[in-house]
Amino acid sequence: MNKSQLIEALAKAENITLKKAEMVVNAVFENMAEALVQQERIEIRGFGSFKVKFYNGYKGRNPKTGDLIKVDGKKLPFFKVGKEMRERVDR
Amino acid sequence: MSLTKDKLITRLQTQAGLEKQESRQIVERVLEIMKDTLAEGDDLLISGFGRFSVRQKKARRGRNPQTKEALTLGPRKVLVFKASGVLRQRLNQQ
Question: Is the ipTM of this complex over 0.90?
Answer without folding.
Answer: no
